[in-house]
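Sanity check

After download, print the first record. It should look like this:
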Amino acid sequence: MLRRAAIGIFLTSFFSLVAPAASFSGTSALEFTRRITAYGPHASGSTAIGRVRAYVEAQAKTQGWSVTEDSFVARTPNGPVKMANIVAHLTGHTSRALVFTGHYDTRARAGFLGANDGGSSAGFLLELARVLPRENRNDDIYLVWFDGEEAVREWTDTDSLYGSRHMVRQWANDGTLARIKALINVDMIGDKDLDILRDGNSSPALNDLLLQTARSLGYGQYFQNDLSRIEDDHLPFRQAGVDALDIIDYDYGPNNSYWHTNQDTMDKLSAHSLEAVGAVLLEMRRRLD
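Expected structure tokens:
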């Protein structure tokens, strides 16, 4: 009995050390997205985006993250607009950091809900906020919800990516930028017909790791090696010398007919798509950590 008890104690200790890692729930991510979308259109500077911001911050704090706002006034073609990035932080044990980002603003268009374009990335990051504190980590982890990804009028180098361009300047000044091991940005990853291409504006090594990880987990059919070039919130970081990756399904609906239209609604999204991206991204984090 004593020997069996000792073995039992050993096995209990052993399995506690090798307990399964936390899993990403597509159902939970979809529900977070649904709640964000329920606030209605929330373009930068609107009252509604303030409500979304308060919801995101409250959810992240509940999961134990240190949350701050990176507030600024953006100079846009329509004049100054108050914006705020949301930054959540978990401390690790090294001097390096892994960063996961996405935007939470929607396009300034009457009736535009942005379930996929703005909603899915914001909801996805909230599910990461739930899962990541339960995982072992060496590096610091940052989650950033960018404001001002969308153009105020028409997409140009200066009328777009307001939040990420501001964040790069802030982090260059305070030394955080130099500590980033990798930055992974997600955008429009909820489409039921998920088809993510290799982004030519992303770091080649991270693109390779994305494909390898997806195939090893059985999600290779959703991640293609066909090349595309996307301007997204990862781009200011790439231009600043950071290894960064954009995960985006830019083909949304037949002939991209849902993109930036009022057809971008919750019924077009899938928990399975969110879970596929989430499982791959979590495993990438473990391999990068």
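If your output differs, re-run the checksum step. Summary of this record's structure: The longest strand covers residues 79-90.
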